Amino acid sequence: MINLIWFAMFALAFLAAGFNGTLDATTQALFAATEQTVTFCLGLVGILAFWSGIMRIAEVSGLTGIIARAFHPLLKRLFPQIKNQATLGAVALSLAANLLGLSNAATPLGLKAIRDLARENPQPGRLSPAICTFVTLILGGVTLFPTTVIAFRAKTGSQSPAAILWPILGATLFGTAVALILNRLFSGTRRP
Amino acid sequence: MLFHAVSVWTMPLFILLILVYAFSRKVRVYEVFLQGVEDGLQVGVRLFPFLLGIFTALAVFRSSGAMDLLLNLTAPLAKLAGLPREIVPLLVLKPLSGTAALGYMGELLQKHGPDSVIGRMAAAVQGSTETTFYVLTVYLGAIGIKKPQHLLAVGLLADWAAFAAAIILVNFLCP
C-alpha cells in the first residue's frame, strides 16, 4: 500500500507536470526538498538529542516510574502486554507531553517511548499490539492546549483565541476513540 | 491571558521538575544527560531516509500542480456535504502535510477572519488531528518499520471522523 502511494505521488506529479508545463519547477522543487530534509533533520536531531538527555535523567532519578504508577490504571488497560515500569513511564510521559501541547517535547518523548515498546516486541521488525495502540493514540492527537492553532488565531486578531479549545478537545477525543476502535477491528484481520 | 500564562510556564516547569527531582535524588544530572543525548542522536540519523522519502514525494506532488488537481476534484464533495467549499482542501491537505495545512488555515483565517464560521471551522479541523503521514513516517521510522499496514487506514479514517466532529461542534457550540 505504502509502495503504491509513494509511486503514485511521483508518477502523478510528473504526469501533471508534463501536462501543466511545470516540469522545470517540479524538478527544482524535488532537489530543494532534499536540501530541506537535511535542514529539517538536523533541527530534529538537536531537539531529539536534548529530550533524550532529559528523559534519561527522569528515568535514572525514578521519576518515570512514579509517573507510570500514577497512570497505571489507564496504561494497564491500553497496554496489557507491557509489564516493564520504565517503558510504561516513557509512554505516560509522552502522552502527557501531547496532552499539554508541548509540541517540541512531544515527538522526542514519543520516539523514546515507541523505541522502548519495540525493545519489548516479541517479534522484532513487526508491529506489536502495544506499538499499534501507542501509534493510534498519537494519531488521535488529544490535546488540552492546541498551542499553534491558538497562536494563529491570536495573530489574525481573534476576539477570544482560546475559544477554539473546546471544539478541538471534543474532536480529538472523538477521533481518538474512533482510531482505537478501528485499530482493534483491523488488527484482528491483519495479515501475518 | 490565563492561557498565555499556562503555555509560557508549562515547558520550563516540565523541564525544571525533572531536573530538580533528579538533583535532589543525587543523580549526576549532567553525565546522565550526555548519555541520553547520544541515544537521541542515533534516532535522528536513522530517521533521515524516511523523511527524505515523504518530503520529496510531497514536494513534486505539490509543485507539479497534481495537488491542486486533487483539491479541485474534491470541490463537488463540498456541495454534497453542505460545507463551504473553502474548507474542503484543508480536509485533504491535513493528513498529508502539516505545514501545507497550517499555511492554508492561516490564509482562511486572514481572508475570512478567525471568528467567522469558516475561520473557526478551519482552526478546529487543523487542531483536531495529528498529521497522519508524518506521524507514521517518523514513529515507525524510528523503530525501522517500513510498512504501516492497517495503521494508515486507521489514521485516515480517524482523521475524517475528527474533522466531521470538529465541524459539527463548531456549528453546534456557537452557531
Explain this structure to me?
The complex is a heterodimer of chains A (192) and B (175). With 192 residues, chain A is mainly alpha-helical. Chain A has one domain. Helices cover 78% and strands 0% of the residues of chain A. Chain B is mainly α and 175 residues long. Chain B has one domain. Chain B is 82% helix and 0% strand. Chain B has helices spanning 2-24, 29-63, 66-73, 75-81, 88-96, 98-112, 117-127, 132-142, 150-173. The two termini of chain B are 25 Å apart. At the A-B interface, helix 1, helix 2, helix 6, helix 7 and helix 8 of A face helix 1, helix 2, helix 6, helix 7 and helix 8 of B.
Largest sheet of chain A: none
Point out poorly predicted stretches of chain B: none
Report the uncertain regions of chain A.
none
How many strands in all of chain A?
0
> How confident overall, as mean pLDDT of chain B?
88
Shape of chain A from CA axes?
globular
- Count the helices of chain A. How many? 9
In round numbers, the mean pLDDT of chain A is 89
Helix content of chain A: over 70%
Strand residues, percent of chain A: under 5%
Helix content of chain B: over 70%
